[in-house]
Every structure is written in C-alpha cells, then in structure tokens.
Design goal:
alpha/beta; five-stranded parallel sheet; three-stranded antiparallel sheet; 11 helices; about 20% strand
Length: about 375
C-alpha cells in the first residue's frame, strides 16, 4: 500500500473539490497558503487507475495488490492528471484565462493580424475533456485581478451542477456560455466535470477590492488561521513554561516562549482593532532553524520582532495610538514609549524608539507585551 503523507488541510480541500469543484483558500499572511498550494499540486497528481498506481515524479507503475485509491482524490479513476498554475494581477484579462483576440507575431513580409488566445482556464478545461484527463487549476492572488471580468460569462458555469456530466455529455442542468473558437466565431462552451479550481487570497490586502459576493459563492470557502501549536513544536517548547516569564534570563527557551506569547498577544490586538484577517501567521516566526543558545535565540527573536513590528505598523498605518496599544508601549519594562510633542504649534505623537530593537532589548519588549493586559 502507498502511504500518502499529506496534511489534514490538503485532504480536506481535496474532499471539497470532489464535492464542489471549486475552493477559495484564504487566511492571514504567513499561515501557509503557498505551502498548501504546493502540497495540493503534489496530491492531485497522485494518480490511480484500474488497480495500478504510479508516483507522478517517477511515472513507475506499481503492482495492483500494493495500491489503494485514496478516498479523498478527485476523479480517482483518471490517470492523465495535470496541474495548471497562475497568479492574477491588475493586468490580467479574460483572454489570459479563457479566449480572446491577441496580436499575431508576424514574419518578414507578412501582414499584421490577430489570433485567438488559449487562456489557462481554457487549456485546463480542454485537458479535462480528454478521455482520461483531470485538471487542477491553481490561481494564487485571485483577488488581485478583476476576477469577475476575467472569468466573464463562465462564472455561471463554474458550479458543479452546471458542469458537463462525468461522462463528458451535457445534463439537464449544464450551463453553457459563449466562447471564441479558432476561427474567431462564437460557440457554446461548457466546463467539464473533471476540472477543479483552487483560488487563494489574502482577505486583508488593502491594495485590492473585495471579491464579488456572487463570484465567491461559487467556491467552497476554506480558511487558514495562525496556529500556535506549530510554533511550540518549532521551538521545542513546553507550554507549561509560558507563565510566568522571568525578568532576566540566560535560557534560549525563555526567549522563544516570550516570542510566541508576544506574537499571540499582538494577534489578539490586531484582531480586536482591525479584524482577524489582519493577524500574522505562524510562518513569520519560522524563517530558519532556531538556534539553541541564548545569544542566538536573541538574534533570532530580534529578526522575528522586526517583521512582526513592521506588520503592525502597516496594519495601523497613521494610527500611532493603535500601534502603541498593540506593542504595549509604556508598559513596565517595555523599551517603547509614546509621547506627545508639538510641531507648528500642533500636538504630535511620537513613538520611540523608531529604529529596530537590538537583540539585547528584544526580550524585555516581548515580555512586556506577553504579560500586559
């Protein structure tokens, strides 16, 4: 039997794809969306057919009595499995996703002209229409492009019950939409049952507009959240060490405990002040293997705090009181202070220090945040 070492999140999303065809993955930054998308790509290519299986990276058939069909695998009977990956931005157009007229590259002496593009959704759909084909289309940053305009009339055909039947034939509920053919003529087109779509986005991204509600409801939602237990494991910590934190320490365990507790407290305040989508995920504290000595731990924590503080500054941009509250400025032991001065005869707030904290000050800052209420 083949062992499939995929996460619970991956297997749950595969189950949702089997039921709904489309999943919208969201969560705060650094919660593991990119990692999960890579895992979904690998899992989808775990192909099984007629009692024989192969690993996609090796394409080596395995004996039938050593294989099983994973119950979570979409279209498990199909072994020609392909993953298509793209990311949206403000310049993404319908011709990049479906079909459209684009200028044709000409050779010397040829007249200028146009050709019909084959966008990534169209190519994925065409592959899923083949007898043994199954396609997974992964769209990262799906809310960074004009998603409604990009999908066009295909939006009404995205839902499972609006697709072609599993045998590739139309059913009584199949919804078609018009699409350009190779000759530039409009023809009716329907999406196949064996086409699956995963879109990923950061809901808190202030540079983009929210997705249209009618568009979102055609996707099964799946949210990732900051996971504190991952950090305890990453740092090799015992939860019982979280209280109380010593005033002075020479142990790397205390530094990492203060870091995790401060991260949790900051996320609580980000959620209260701006919303849960504005938290920072556990991945922000996992940039490398944590050193197991005190000085190394302080440097590691200082790097993490610089990133966490920059995130707070961005979320509360222009609101120094919000920043000060989130990082416990003026709390006992904190190196941060919020003061009021005047400029041009107007009151002005100042948060000090403005530069990054050196390693020898970071523990006190983390302790002040972790223990403040």
């Amino acid at each position: 039997m083949i062992e499939h070492d995929f996460s619970d999140d991956c297997i749950r999303i595969m189950g949702l794809l089997s039921e709904r065809n489309n999943v919208l993955l969201s969560g705060p930054p650094a919660t593991g969306k990119s990692r999960l998308l890579a895992e979904l790509k690998s899992a989808f290519q775990t192909a099984v057919k007629a009692g024989a299986s192969y690993r996609p990276e090796r394409r080596i058939p395995l004996p039938a009595n050593n294989t099983t069909v994973p119950g979570w695998l979409p279209s498990p009977e199909r072994d020609n499995r392909k993953v298509f990956v793209t990311a949206f931005d403000q310049s993404t157009h319908q011709r990049d996703v479906l079909r459209g007229l684009v200028p044709r590259i000409t050779k010397d002496g040829e007249t200028l002209g146009f050709t019909v593009s084959q966008g990534i959704l169209y190519r994925a759909a065409e592959h899923a229409r083949t007898p043994e084909g199954a396609s997974l289309l992964i769209i990262d940053e799906i809310n960074r492009g004009p998603a409604v305009a990009v999908f066009g009339a295909s939006i009404v055909s995205l839902e499972s019950d609006k697709r072609l039947a599993a045998d590739g034939l139309p059913s009584s509920t199949t919804q078609t939409f018009e699409l350009l053919d190779n000759d530039g003529q409009m023809v009716d087109y329907a999406l196949p049952r064996h086409l699956y779509i995963v879109g990923a986005m950061n809901q808190a991204d202030a540079s983009v507009a929210p997705l249209d509600v009618a568009f979102q409801r055609r996707f099964a939602p799946y949210q990732l959240r900051p996971n504190e237990s991952v950090l305890w494991h990453h740092f090799g910590l015992d939860r019982e060490l979280t209280s109380p934190l010593p005033e002075e320490t020479s142990r790397h365990e205390d530094v990492y405990t203060a870091l995790v507790c401060a991260w949790r407290r900051v996320n609580d305040r980000l959620s209260a002040g701006r919303g849960a989508a504005f938290q920072l995920g556990h991945g922000a504290l996992m940039h490398t293997i944590p050193p197991q000595d005190h000085d190394g731990a302080l440097k590691y924590a200082a790097n993490c705090w610089t990133l966490l503080k920059a995130h707070v500054d961005e979320v509360f941009f222009g609101d120094l009181r919000g920043i000060a509250e989130t990082i416990s400025a003026d709390a006992p032991g904190s190196p941060y202070t919020l003061s009021e001065t005047t400029f041009a005869e107007q009151p002005v707030l100042q948060l000090s220090p403005s530069e990054d904290l050196p390693p020898d000050q970071v523990y006190r800052a983390l302790q002040a945040i972790a223990e403040s209420r």
